[in-house]
Amino acid sequence: MLTESSNQLTRSPVQKAVFAQTKKLRSRYNRLWLKEHILRTIGMSVESTQSKRLALFQELGGRAIAQGGKRIHVPVVDDLTPPEFHARFVATDTPVVFKGRASGWKSSKWTAAYLAKVASKETVRLLAVAPGEAKGKPGEGRNVDYQQIAKSMKEGGDLYARFSGLLHQRPELIEDLDLDWFRSMSGHGNETWGFFMGGKGTATGLHSSIAPNLFYQIRGKKRWYIYPASTAPFFKPEVKGSPYFYSYVDVNDPKTWPIAEAAPGWYADLGPGDVLFVPSFAWHQVHNKTASIAVGYRWMSLKQGWRASWIQTLLAATCSNPPLWKAKDHKDLPSLLDSIDY
Q1: Residue 83 phi/psi, 5° resolution?
Q2: Sheet containing 283-288: which strands, arranged edge to edge?
């Protein structure tokens, strides 16, 4: 039987009411989402299906907003054993902050200048993925080097390396992390790394991925907004036949988008040494409150993806833009994304 993942978030009375009162509508939305995806894949008209899907989005928003809900803080712990972590948070698709867990790692000494020097021969593809920013056409991204990004951070510019494959390009940097801890907590060895480095005020819009993530904040501060996978219909994700799901809803702007607070969700503020667990297919939007350096440790788990969102697992498994087999092991996500109409 297909059921929604049961996470700790649903313990709030208001959030329980939102989930209960929108369950049938969200199920209808998901069926239309899947239908539109299939129609697009085989080259048939989606106009009628899309119209019905977007009408449901409006109705869902109205019902959720009427409840007057608020986002709650992500749970915070000092540390957990792998079995405790999986039982309390992975199995319930609930995010958690490991407060200061990585404060003593060698990587805590990384600076923008140091990384620019280490990566002096590397570049990163910049992407149009800020909140509300229109996605560019394939090939419209541009490469910059890490010296340029470090300079931009110092001068208050807007250059931001997102999802960079720097740790695959410079694997010696991994030696400054506690790889054994990451692997013991994930329970998987099929890891990929994402690297993030940008100035104050830079951000990444609302998106979702099948890969769970242990996100390590090395320098600076970030504000995270996170929503369980089952809230996807509240955000009318774009239907592009891609395993990279995103929405133009800006959840940092609840005046324009009141669903940002009304949809059951969490928020968290990360500082140096904090590690955040982001469950499979959890929707998230991230803002750099200061200049920031961070690393994401991801792994692929179809089991965790199916439990969190069977609909998005099906969408990802049948995607063609690019196929999941091509995307899942790609070591440089920015260049891959810039090559497709995602």
Answers
A1: -60, -40
A2: 72-73, 266-270, 222-227, 283-288, 203-208, 245-246
3-class DSSP state of 108:
helix
CA-based radius of gyration for the chain: 19
Residue 3 has pLDDT above 70, yes or no: no
d(C-alpha 247, C-alpha 239), whole Å: 10
Question: Under a CB-based contact definition with an 8 Å cutoff, are residues 9 and 72 in contact?
Answer: yes
- Residue 167 makes CB contacts below 8 A (sequence gap 6+) with 173, 174, 193, 195, 295
Judge whether residue 89 has pLDDT over 80.
yes
Report the SS3 class of residue 161: strand
**pTM given for the model:** 0.94
pLDDT of 255-311, one tens digit each?
999 999 999 999 999 999 999 999 999 999 999 999 999 999 999 888 999 999 999
Q: Report all structural domains of the chain as residue ranges with CATH numbers, in order of start.
A: 8-338 (2.60.120.10)
How far is Cα 63 from Cα 268, in angstroms, rounded to an integer?
26
Cα–Cα distance, 84 to 300 (Å, whole number): 20
For residue 253, the model assigns a pLDDT of 97
